[in-house]
Design brief:
- By secondary structure, this protein is mostly helical.
- The protein folds into three domains: 44 residues; 131 residues, Type II secretion system (T2SS), domain F (Receptor-associated Protein); 114 residues, Up-down Bundle (Receptor-associated Protein).
- Strands 2-1-3 form a three-stranded antiparallel beta sheet, covered by helices on one side.
- Helix 3 packs antiparallel against helix 4, helix 9 packs across helix 10 and helix 9 runs antiparallel to helix 16.
Length: 402
């Protein structure tokens, strides 16, 4: 049996590690023989192979992180110690991957590290944005208040991202379904009708000939279609992870008709929300701008925010620093920021700006959904009409000639 332990030496130093023994009592005796005073001892349970395999596929969802901040804030406000709070949250978490991560943070905090430092060791889950806000809360003694802000921020960020994804998920799902049904019809249904039409011995319309040719190609090379689609998806995914690819895709997002306004409003909402949260958390303006640039989610905006930060360093106001980019940062946001700077109410102004653009995103997503539905019906109707016409026209021609 293996046990995680935390103990103190005669000099009062904290020591952590793993000890192997036949029982808990034997583990304590082993540590005491090494002149260690046991503070914490816990058996390491053996994880079955199938559980480890499933754990490989597990992911920590943004919603789970949001709930983690919210519950941690409530426990801290109730004067529950950080160690007990982390233990409680770890025990009640059903995601094994997240559970292990929380217990690892608990171990680090038990060993004398601050919560922010323990979180910084998990950058894939806790970004520098969250770590810096927690660190500021620790420095000011307002950690539970800061965690509330982070929970609110994470929830708004999750809702914003969810709505944007929802706007694209519906048409992609419909198109994919139509593509699969179309391919199946071309492979299994059209060939049976083709033989019937050819037996009639009449001249086939051009649309029917096209349909038969496409069906014949699909029968022989259906695998090529899926190979090409899979290759495109894989290639675009790989390309988007490169610096050049990321920049190209980010630029396209801001140029696509209809969608460019949606993306711009999303980035402005994200900028205002993140910048405000950092300022409320006590982060200095320059550092808040630098951190915001890393979480904005678009390399074009990232570069602009970094350039604006450099201008603020040499004495320019935040509003004037961003006024040189009217296409990315609208005159409305720069004017609102200018008012916030003059009246020393920048956080409150940014909160209003973030709320405004989040409402704009909601409105645009709702309008796009209403627009996409009839558009998809027209496209699908046209495709079905083409199939029906291609099949019925030869039959109608034969009937007319009799």
């Amino acid at each position: 049996m293996k046990f995680n332990y935390q103990a103190r030496t005669k000099q009062g130093e904290v020591q952590t590690g793993v000890v192997e023994a036949g029982s808990k009592e034997a583990a304590i005796e082993t540590l005491q023989r090494h002149d260690l005073v046991v503070v914490f001892l816990e058996e390491i349970s053996e994880v079955p192979l199938y559980t480890r395999s499933l754990k490989f596929f597990q992911r920590i969802k943004p919603k789970e992180i949001t709930i983690f901040y919210r519950q941690l804030a409530i426990l801290f406000e109730a004067n529950v110690s950080p160690l007990d709070a982390l233990r409680i949250l770890g025990e009640q978490t059903t995601n094994q991957l997240f559970k292990d991560l929380i217990f690892e943070i608990e171990e680090d905090v038990r060993g004398g590290e601050t919560l922010s430092h323990a979180m910084s060791k998990k950058p894939k889950v806790f970004s520098p944005f969250y770590v810096n806000v927690v660190r500021a809360g620790e420095a000011t003694g307002k950690l539970h208040e800061v965690l509330k802000y982070l929970a609110d921020h994470a929830e708004r960020e999750y809702n914003l991202t969810f709505k944007i994804r929802g706007a694209f998920t519906y048409p992609i799902a419909i198109f994919s379904l139509f593509l699969i049904v179309g391919v199946l019809m071309m492979i299994f249904v059209i060939p049976q009708l083709t033989s019937m039409l050819q037996e009639m011995g009449t001249e086939l319309p051009i649309t029917t000939k096209i349909l038969i040719a496409v069906s014949g190609f699909m029968q022989s090379f259906w695998w090529l279609l899926f190979l090409v689609i899979g290759g495109l998806v894989f290639g675009i995914g790989k390309f988007s992870k490169t610096e050049k690819g990321r920049r190209l895709i980010d630029a396209l997002k801001l140029k696509l008709p209809i969608f460019k306004d949606l993306f711009q409003k999303m980035y402005l909402a994200r900028f205002s929300e993140n910048f405000k949260t950092l300022l409320v958390g006590g982060i200095p303006i320059l550092k808040a701008l630098d951190i915001t640039s890393t979480v904005i989610g678009n390399s074009i905006y990232e570069e602009i925010i970094k350039e604006a930060s450099d201008r603020v360093k040499v004495g320019k106001t935040i509003a004037s620093a961003f006024s040189g980019y009217p296409k990315q940062f609208t005159p409305m946001i720069t004017q609102m920021v200018a008012v916030g700077e003059k009246t020393a109410s920048l956080e409150a102004i940014l909160d209003k700006v973030a709320m405004f653009y989040q409402q704009e995103v909601d409105r645009m997503v709702s309008n796009m959904t209403q627009l996409i539905e009839p558009l998809m019906i027209l496209v699908l109707g046209g495709a079905v009409g083409f199939l029906v016409a291609s099949i019925l026209m030869p039959i109608y021609n034969i009937g007319s000639s009799l």
